[in-house]
Write a structure and sequence with these properties.
The complex is a heterodimer of chains A (362) and B (278). In chain A, 23% of the residues lie in helices and 35% in strands. Chain A is α+β, with helices and mostly antiparallel strands. In chain A, strand 17 and strand 18 form a beta hairpin. In chain A, helix 2 crosses helix 3, helix 2 runs parallel beside helix 4 and helix 3 crosses helix 4. Chain B has one domain: MetI-like fold, CATH 1.10.3720. The two termini of chain B are 34 Å apart. Classes of the chains: A alpha+beta (362), B mainly alpha (278). Chains A and B meet through strand 6 and helix 2 of A and helix 9 and helix 10 of B. Chain A: This is Lactose/L-arabinose transport system ATP-binding protein. Chain A: It comes from Rhizobium lusitanum. Chain A: Keywords: ATP-binding, Cell inner membrane, Cell membrane, Membrane, Nucleotide-binding, Transport.
Chain lengths: 362, 278
């Protein structure tokens, strides 16, 4: 087990900079999830931690040692790949013990580790099969087993569940969470799926275009996003963003009106220093934070487009005047789909405000 | 269902009807080679075409052996072809691996040069190669001269490079993270996975060495070190050509290759397809 420290880490391919000075501290035993859209640099960052990509600048420490120029195998890490990367010509048992055998680890110790890993992952009956004879979930277990036998200080997972079907993904997610509790080892997990991030992480690192946008506990990111990007990325369905304009700015309160429905006005309990009246801003409302008409601070009438009924809850896709589409989550209301319009209420306390550059106004 | 099976049958019949004559056209020279190998020289030049084998095969073989020590030449051919194939597969695999998996300065240039050598006809290369090996290195009439110069096979390098390029990089990354050394990754992971391609390449290289006539003829003037095709060539004299012996020798040269091809056919086709499609 070990802590991890990224100090101004930079990655360049020629003149193109991919990671722009990442700083991060990961505590011993923490489960950290790197999340972000495709191409944000999360896998590159993970591969730099693994030693599979050179570090162009900055300092990477694992367990207090600088490991920038250290071989992957000497860093005390183990990695689980998206494609599982199992050796197709070897049996499960050989896949598990391959690395240890090649490194001349004593046979008794190798056997003990393989047995232990196979028992933890319940794959003992699969030991003589080859990867092609396994299901997706079984392959994933073997890939995790191969990481476990290394007894690493840090586990690295590179989108390990993205090749599995939805049901299996949920099952494996729970198993990885259980494994973390059992082993107590530091884990770094890369995904583009914010649900995985929210459910697994002690700490989420949101990346965009090679920059760390925000680091925090899942609910902290949900409750208090640093900017519009994080607000839109964390939470499902994603936050609605409504075009608005500042109409009033008093100490401790900012009044805004929707640009497409100017009669909808909210007075938000924020300071927002430097914001001027008439400035264009964005109002962020999570689908689950719309209230019944009359029960919030301002009512908003929308044209219902489509309603999805999921049993206990409904997602209503609706358009506000001006054509912006929003999603409203409501407790199951079977008749909503038949209506043309719906009136819901906005709560100032549950609404976020962002400036033109997407920065949060507080 | 019935109409479907009927249309399948018609398609199959049409396909066989088209391919069977082609197969006959392709097999006819081979059959005639076998027929001629069973006839005395005067029988080959008889006025009518005889399509059935005669009984003189062993006489032709005895004459061939007496004239050229053909069994000895076959042994040399087999040794040369096996050693050449093994060494060349090893060499081209290593070169292919390096070109597929390592980034180094000048890599595109190296690939370009290798590609370029494929376009050069062998007749352009053979004279400078002969001068270099025979005069500069003084290796004429040696096993080394027979085997080593053709070892680096450009096609083989590109063939193996393609096979290694198609393998998912994460396999090798996984091994690196596990502390497996580069040579172990190559030997224990990459080579076993490239087995079908290597089998196909081995057949191609074995055939190339087995059929090679010009280079062994040029570099080797010692009668005791003649390969089988060169030995057969000696039967074409100024005044007399022993066609019966040549045909018997050709049958003996062709038979092992046919057997090998039939046995390894599955690998051969899989290897070629792997290079072509994936």
């Amino acid at each position: 087990m070990a802590e991890l420290s990224l100090n101004n880490i930079v990655k360049r391919y020629g003149s193109l900079e991919i990671i722009h000075g990442a700083n991060l501290e990961v505590k011993d035993g923490e489960f950290v999830v790197f999340v972000g859209p495709s191409g944000c640099g999360k896998s590159t960052l993970l591969r730099m931690i693994a030693g599979l990509e050179d570090i162009s600048g900055g300092e990477l420490k694992i367990g207090g040692r600088v490991v920038n120029d250290m071989e992957p195998a000497d860093r005390g890490i183990a990695m689980v790949f998206q494609s599982y990367a199992l050796y197709p010509h070897l049996t499960v048992e050989q896949n598990l013990n391959f690395g240890l055998r090649m490194n001349g680890n004593p046979k008794a110790d190798t056997d003990r580790r393989v047995k232990q890993a196979s028992e933890i992952l319940q794959i003992t009956e699969l030991m003589q099969r080859r990867p092609k004879q396994l299901s997706g979930g079984q392959r994933q277990r073997v890939a995790i087993g191969r990481a476990i036998v290394r007894e690493p200080q840090i586990f690295l997972f590179d989108e390990p569940l993205s090749n599995l079907d939805a049901e299996l993904r949920v099952q494996m997610r729970v198993e990885i969470s259980r494994l973390h509790k059992k082993l107590g080892t530091t884990m770094i997990y890369v995904t583009h799926d914010q649900t995985e991030a929210m459910t697994l992480a002690d700490k989420i690192v949101v990346l965009r275009s090679g920059n760390i946008e925000q680091v925090g506990a899942p609910l902290d990111l949900y409750d208090d996003p640093a900017n519009q990007f994080v607000a839109g990325f964390v939470g499902s369905p994603k936050m609605n963003f409504l075009r608005a304009e500042v109409v009033d700015n008093q100490p401790g309160r900012v009044g805004v009106a929707l640009r497409d429905q100017r009669n909808v006005r909210l007075s938000l309990p924020i300071t927002a220093a430097g914001v001027e009246i008439g400035e264009h801003v964005t109002l962020g409302v999570r689908p689950e934070h719309f209230l019944d008409a009359g029960r919030g601070d301002a009512d908003l009438t929308v044209d219902v487009d489509v309603a999805e009924h999921l049993g206990n809850t409904s997602y209503i896709y609706a358009n506000i005047a001006g054509g912006e589409q929003i999603v409203i989550e409501r407790e199951e209301s079977r008749n909503t789909g038949n209506r043309d319009t719906l009136t819901v209420a906005l709560s100032a306390a549950k609404t976020f405000l962002f400036d033109g550059a997407g920065n949060r106004l507080r | 269902m019935k109409s479907k099976s009927k249309s399948t049958l018609i398609r199959s019949l049409a396909l066989h009807g088209l391919l069977a004559p082609l197969a006959i056209i392709w097999l006819f020279p081979l059959w005639m080679m076998f027929v001629f190998s069973t006839m005395p020289d005067y029988g080959i030049f008889s006025p009518g075409i005889i399509l059935t084998p005669s009984t003189g095969f062993m006489d032709n073989v005895r004459n061939l052996q007496a004239d050229t020590n053909f069994i000895g030449a076959m042994t040399i051919s087999i040794v040369v072809a096996i050693v050449y194939t093994v060494l060349s597969v090893m060499l081209t695999s290593m070169a292919g691996w390096a070109l597929a998996r390592y980034q180094f300065a000048g890599r595109p240039g190296v690939i370009g040069i290798i590609l370029g050598t494929i376009t050069l006809p062998y007749s352009v290369v053979v004279i400078p190669q002969f001068i270099m090996v025979a005069r500069d290195f003084g290796l004429a009439n040696s096993w080394v001269a027979l085997i080593v110069p053709p070892l680096f096979n450009s096609l083989g390098v590109l063939f193996m490079r393609q096979a290694f390029s198609m393998m998912p990089g994460e396999l090798f990354d996984a091994a690196r993270v596990e502390g497996v050394k580069e040579w172990q990754i190559f030997l224990r992971i990459a080579l076993p996975l490239a087995r079908p391609t290597m089998a196909a390449l081995a057949i191609i290289l074995f055939l190339a060495s087995w059929n090679n006539y010009l280079w062994p003829l040029l570099i080797n003037s010692r009668p005791g070190m003649m390969t089988a095709p060169v030995a057969l060539g000696t039967l074409i004299g100024l005044t007399r050509v022993s066609w019966g012996g040549i045909m018997a020798g050709a049958v003996m040269l062709t038979a092992p290759i046919l057997v090998i091809f039939v046995l390894l056919q599955r690998h051969f086709i899989a290897g070629i397809a792997a290079g072509a499609i994936k």
